[in-house]
Write a structure and sequence with these properties.
- By secondary structure, the protein is α/β, with parallel strands linked by helices.
- The chain has one domain.
- Helices cover about 20% and strands about 40% of the residues.
- The chain is built from 8 helices and 20 strands.
- Strands 1, 4, 5, 7, 9, 11, 13, 15, 17 and 19 form a 10-stranded mixed beta sheet that branches. Strands 3-2-6-8-10-12-14-16-18-20 form a 10-stranded mixed beta sheet, with helices on one face.
- Helix 2 packs antiparallel against helix 5.
- The chain is globular.
- About 0% of the residues have low confidence.
């Protein structure tokens, strides 16, 4: 990694920040107390409610028996013998299968709790440096003030683990909240594939999860992420994904959202090295009175980098979704190649969707485009399917699966793709 790229991706390694998680909690507790909630009138929260993601009277989560959905996912993964599976519990980290892959030279997995020192872990510094250089908004400050643990996944230079890493995160119990941070650091010439499974059952009250995912890719590093988020009624989730890419680094991120009650997902990719590439794909299937608020930022800081984003969603009943996407191109980022698209399909006259793609370009030799579309499925179209012997429920399932297939088919063939189409998109829960 050259010096300029290193300074951007690694942050300020000499930054005298918090020494451990307890000090980090204390630092952000004061900020959380004075920062206002996001303004509901802004496009970023068109249908969302930021107050739904505050812990209020919820208690800190503790490890408990896996939810039925999480247990089902674990059993599916255990049937695939070559996988490395980690269960990220509220107060523990449990290995299932192939622990050696995450316990040796190919990959380091380390858990930090209250008093564990940050100083001996340079792989944490890019994340800590990034925090020190920006002011968080209220919800992020709340999450950092209550952060319970940090999971570090570090791949040393010129290493490629033999199998994908699967990380299972279960929703907290009814009346509880989890605040977790995952930090991924892939060194030069290395690669990592991470499958993140977030699962939870219906609850009568509220189950809240704040989950941060910070990704740093050094020069010529590669990273592939697939996120499966399948939760029940009463589950509220705020996710934040941040990427920092060095020279010729390659990052692919696929996010699949189904179920839950309120969803907020932020993804920001910072292209900091020439020749790097970020591909972002996502889908959301909403029903009932579920809401989804999605924000993306493709931040081009250097020349000759590429980013491409596509999010697609289907909305039934009285569900609502909003998308705000930004592409920014710095003056020195000549030769930028950036694309952004959001498409929604409404399967009910009461469903709502809004989309606001935005460009901020300060260079003159770029290729940038954005687009948004909202389509409605009419009663006549469903009636046509009925005349072909297809009942309305099956017809809606076919329309949803067909519309979202462009993203769903990015999941590897086999049991996981069957799970996506059957459980996540099939409407069973």
């Amino acid at each position: 990694m050259d010096a300029s790229t290193s300074s951007r991706t690694a942050g300020a390694e000499s930054h005298a920040g918090p020494a451990n998680l307890t000090e980090l909690n204390d630092l952000y507790r004061g900020l959380a107390a004075v920062l206002p909630l996001p303004d509901l009138r802004t496009e970023a929260w068109h249908y969302g409610r930021p107050d739904r993601f505050l812990p209020g009277e919820l208690q800190p989560a503790t490890s408990a028996q896996l939810s039925a959905r999480a247990q089902s996912v674990l059993e599916l993964l255990q049937s695939e013998q070559k996988l490395t599976v980690l269960e990220f519990q509220a107060d523990n980290l449990e290995f299932h299968l192939n622990r050696q892959a995450a316990d040796g030279e190919l990959m380091l997995v380390q858990r930090f709790t209250a008093a564990d020192a940050f100083a001996g872990s340079p792989a944490l510094q890019p994340w800590l440096g990034d925090l020190s250089q920006r002011e968080p908004e209220r919800l992020e400050a709340e999450a950092l003030a209550r952060l319970q643990q940090i999971l570090l996944i570090h791949v040393p230079a010129v290493h490629r683990p033999d199998s994908a890493l699967h990380l299972l995160v279960d929703m907290p119990a009814d009346g509880q909240a989890r605040f977790e941070q995952i930090v991924v650091n892939v060194e030069s010439g290395s690669e990592l594939e991470l499958h993140l499974h977030i699962a939870g059952d219906d609850v009568a009250g509220q189950s809240l999860l704040h989950l941060g995912l910070d990704i740093t890719l050094a020069d010529n590093a590669g990273f592939r992420l697939v996120r499966y988020q399948h939760t029940g009624n009463g589950c509220d989730i705020r996710g934040m994904e941040r990427q920092r890419l060095g020279r010729d680094a390659r990052c692919s991120s696929v996010s699949l959202f189904s179920g839950g009650r309120h969803l907020r997902h932020d993804v920001a990719t910072h292209l900091l090295g020439s020749g790097c590439e970020s591909i972002l794909r996502g889908l959301y299937r909403m029903s009932g009175r579920q809401t989804a608020s999605i924000f993306s930022h493709q931040d081009h800081q250097v020349a000759n980098a590429h980013s491409d984003l596509l999010f697609k969603g289907t909305l039934l009943d009285r569900s609502a979704a909003s998308y705000l996407g930004q592409i920014s191109v710095a003056p020195d980022a000549q030769g930028t190649d950036a694309y952004q698209s959001n498409r929604s399909l409404l399967l009910s006259p009461q469903a709502r969707s809004s989309s606001s793609p935005q460009l901020e370009i300060e260079a003159n030799d770029v290729r940038c485009s954005h687009g948004a579309s909202v389509a409605n499925v009419s009663a006549e179209e469903l009636f046509y399917l009925e005349t072909r012997g297809i009942d309305p429920e099956t017809g809606r399932h076919l329309l949803i699966s067909g519309f979202l297939a462009e993203v769903a088919d990015l999941v590897p063939e086999g049991a996981l793709r069957e799970y996506v189409y059957g459980e996540m998109l099939g409407g069973r829960g």
